[in-house]
Amino acid sequence: MTIAPAKPVRTRFAPSPTGYLHLGGARTALYSWAFARHFGGTFVLRIEDTDLERSTPAAVQAIIDGMQWLGLNHDEGPFYQMQRMDRYREVVAQMLKEGTAYLCYSSPEEVEAMRERMRAAGEKPRYDGTWRPEPGKTLPAIPADRKPVVRFKNPLDGDVTWDDVVKGTITISNKELDDLVIARPDGTPTYNFCVAVDDWDMGITHVLRGDDHVNNTPRQINILRAIGAPLPLYGHLPMILGADGEKLSKRHGAVSVMDYPAQGYLPEAMLNYLARLGWSHGDDEVFSMEQFCEWFNLDHLTRSAAQFNNEKLAWLNNHYIKQADNQRLADLAMPHMIDDGANFEGAPALPVVLGLMKERVNTINELADAAMLFYREPKPDAALLAQHLTDAVKPALAQFAERCKTVEWTKEALSAMMKEVLAANGLKMPQMAMPLRLIVTGQLQTPAIDSVLQIFGREVILSRLAKFL
Ligand code: GLU
């Protein structure tokens, strides 16, 4: 039983727009979104675009597209860090004034030399505090023509401890932490500082993110404390591994969320899959996002790394395809089928066809491929035809064709009529169904033959049969 937070919940997803929306990022976004929904809170989208070399507008768009496809709608933002520079400078100035940050005139070469010395002495390399003001300390003379960086005055002693909602209590000694550069010589702020200021300004109460950020958290906590900001709760989600136990990468296939619609996955399957990848609710495997938001209170997050399992995702996709409205499936399958040269003129209605075929497919692309049999001219293979359309079967098929002219065009009536023709000719079902399938669709594998006949309609069936009888 989780006790409701005292303050309204505010979560954020804060991607760096340097590529596509990765599956791990999508899971982080999903959890942050669902947790905000669980408590009727606010979900903020923040674009961390200060790495000018690696950030691109296309990557921002890719993130927004991915979130939109998944339906992870944000309530506030997107806020762009590059548009918040004045605010960061303001906080830097304030910190300098209050003495929680200081100007450091050590050159990059000097800093490197310091680190080298420490490494040689077997210590952890860090800034040695040359320019760190302390009571009674005289600072060196300011070198001419050198622009300073601004360093955060990290506490020298004590620990930083937080109760990570995923990993449990984490403690890092301040001795491990450097006096972090928070602004460069040109005044631009640095990463951890921007994140801390943003989380403060945006009133973030819960930070969920990948565990590659665990090392940043004590630095951000110290900065938040120094600027008098309340601390959010942190939860670091373990990474996602491929089936081989290695960190999920392109080698394992698609890692970009937007590859999945292209491969014919439904967003509800992906959401359901990602929800379970790092969290559980008893044995529940299939659930809606409404249900997930109701359950997701940060209990039962998995501590160990999750393994991505394509088969399970495919199984869920099959489930959601079966549940999906046929018209929606038609809208999704249609572009693939057009690409494959489908001819929809005078052909059966696509939603009806997809309704018949959706049981057995794992993706929309497979569904589109399967449905093509209704939308292209059948070209039965001559050898197969010779094998199945035997002299023993031909008269029965001719009778069948004759009765097709008048039979009531329902599945039931067609099926009953076929049985009568089979009985009258002493044949078994496959003996007639196989050549019929070949003639009507060009293939031996189809859904139930009575359904196929019914869907094609009398005219098409009669004209196709007429070509071979
Ligand atoms: N921008 C960071 C990333 O994309 C996330 C930062 C955070 O969530 O605090 O990995």
TrEMBL record:
Its main location: cytoplasm. It catalyses: tRNA(Glu) + L-glutamate + ATP = L-glutamyl-tRNA(Glu) + AMP + diphosphate. This is Glutamate--tRNA ligase. The keyword Phosphoprotein does not apply. Pfam families: Anticodon_2 (PF19269), tRNA-synt_1c (PF00749). GO terms for cellular component: cytosol. ATP binds at K250. Monomer. GO terms for molecular function: ATP binding; glutamate-tRNA ligase activity; tRNA binding; zinc ion binding. Belongs to the class-I aminoacyl-tRNA synthetase family. Glutamate--tRNA ligase type 1 subfamily. Its EC number is 6.1.1.17. It is found in: Cytoplasm. A motif ('HIGH' region) lies at residues 15-25. GO terms for biological process: glutamyl-tRNA aminoacylation. A motif ('KMSKS' region) lies at residues 247-251. It comes from Rugamonas fusca. Residues 328-468 form the Aminoacyl-tRNA synthetase class I anticodon-binding domain. InterPro entries: aa-tRNA-synth_I_cd-bd, aa-tRNA-synth_I_codon-bd_sub2, aa-tRNA-synth_I_CS, aa_tRNA-synth_I_cd-bd_sf, Glu-tRNA-ligase_bac/mito, Glu/Gln-tRNA-synth, Glu/Gln-tRNA-synth_Ib_cat-dom, GluQ/Sye. Keywords: Aminoacyl-tRNA synthetase, ATP-binding, Cytoplasm, Ligase, Nucleotide-binding, Protein biosynthesis.
